[in-house]
Write a structure and sequence with these properties.
Helicase, Ruva Protein, domain 3; globular; mainly alpha
Length: about 70
């Protein structure tokens, strides 16, 4: 996966997670994704980075919704 494909996949993640977490602002969702991505910068196999980023961002967002209640 090249960088532009990875960037596209990351943008799709923001869209999906915005739908999964409608109670959170799109900015909050995007921030969770952006903050999760650097965790995988050193990963030499980029094909799975979007999946890992989505999982990490989802955990961050779940933690936000849990603490909000």
């Amino acid at each position: 996966m090249n960088r532009s494909e990875e960037d596209r996949a990351i943008r799709e993640i923001v869209g999906r997670l915005t739908e999964v977490f409608p109670g959170l602002s799109p900015d909050t969702v995007e921030r969770a994704v952006v903050e999760s991505r650097p965790e995988f910068d050193g990963n030499p196999i980029r094909d799975y980075v979007p999946l890992f980023v989505e999982r990490a961002a989802k955990h961050r967002l779940q933690a936000l919704t849990t603490t909000a209640h």
